[in-house]
Predict the structure.
Amino acid sequence: MTAASLPLPRPVSGADLTAHVSDEPVALLQLDVSDTAEAASAVYREVRRGRRVVAVASGGVDASARLAEALDLIGVTTARPEPGQALLNAPVSIVAGPETAIAHPRTIPARPLRVALAGCGVVGGGVLARLSTDDRFEVVGVLVRDPKKPRDPAVPGALLLADPAALLAREPDVLVEAISDASTGLALIRAALSRGVDVVSANKQAVGGDPAALTALAEAHEARLLYSASVGGGSPLIETVRRARAHGPVVRIEAVLNGTCNFILNRLAAGVAFDEALIAARDAGFAEEDPTADLSGLDASAKLAILAHEALDGGISPERIARETLSADAALLPGRVRQLSRLDVRTDSAAVAFTAVDGDSLFADLPDEWNALRVTTGDGRVFTARGRGAGRIPTTESVWADLTDLLASPSQRNAADRGPGRRRKCASVQE
Ligand code: NDP
Ligand code: HSE
């Protein structure tokens, strides 16, 4: 049975049906776009599972346009085929459904998932805004460096605290870790996992140092560690490597992994001065707090180490990855240049280097802060992904997808611990 022959299902906010076209899975979604963010998230979750999507958008005359716009901000490219045109030519096709959608009631858990949020900047602030309007979650505390710093008035001051141990003492079910400090982030992740608290992290420097050790720690304590946003912002790069590995042994990874460098290189190619391009990348929320990490390849090498962990037994340490630095006076090759991260299993080499990519359809036409990935398996099969590699909206979406995955499948331990009056032992947070 093909997707085209399936009867239209009733409106829902998630995957209603899946079918296969050759070996590619297709999700058919009928969406109520009156909650545009929720509808876009439903599409995004399917895209990161590697599915083609046909989305039937209901809820107003402009439902299709609103959905397409929301997905563009996340970094999901869509097509809106005219009647009679093929639906499966694009990764995501949006077609107009009935103007009035039937609202799909959300499943509310017996009690909300208790979320401890670490970081309230570009990423943490975006996650907090989303959590604050969703009654499936309760924010129990927000860790920041300086609780007295002036902030968006929407951030509840009573939740702010500066002591990591005090955050975990609030007995969260899950820690969302999005801070700009690697050592504090790592200590917090370790402390949370050690007490069986699930973790969603965007912090590649915290996760990338030794992802295998963190995964083992999570397993030892029956906790889940998710870190999709740590690589690729909103583009599903980790998920793509996992799919490739499930197909066969990975022999090569090539990727643009730093949004800031890609943004700057695109601006330099358009004649913009280096300093001006860097300021624009910082203003847009793409660059790290210290942009040296972006420019020196440190950010990309941590991300490549995470992808290597997903691709190979044993992974690769970030210290083994050779790096080149982008600066105002760096001599770049002529043509279209990208900061390309490469791992070649057969030559046992890994590097982040400025590379000419003219003629390479995946990397040459990669606008603004976009990231892209090509993974090759031993039988020559190629898996690719592209999307917005940095910024509040795409990264929040990626964290959100991890969080809603946790919500959809509560861990055994959490389910047991979420009974009334049950207390976990306090763990200290040591750097
Ligand atoms: P920001 O600089 O915007 O925010 C960082 C937050 O971390 C701030 O709230 C800051 O507190 C807090 N913080 C920093 N150090 C400490 C500390 N020692 N203890 C407690 N809180 C601390 O960073 P981003 O939101 O951009 O990035 C957060 C994380 O997400 C980083 O690891 C980054 O690499 C990663 N990431 C970022 C992406 C992006 O596009 N920006 C995309 C993907 C991942 P205060 O507010 O008081 O300063
Ligand atoms: N500073 C990072 C980048 C953020 O520019 O890619 C996303 O990880």
About this structure: Residues 233, 258-260, 286-288, 294, 299, 389-390 surround L-homoserine (ligand 2) (CB under 6 Å). The mean pLDDT is 91. The chain has three domains: 26-96, 113-232+393-408, 237-389.
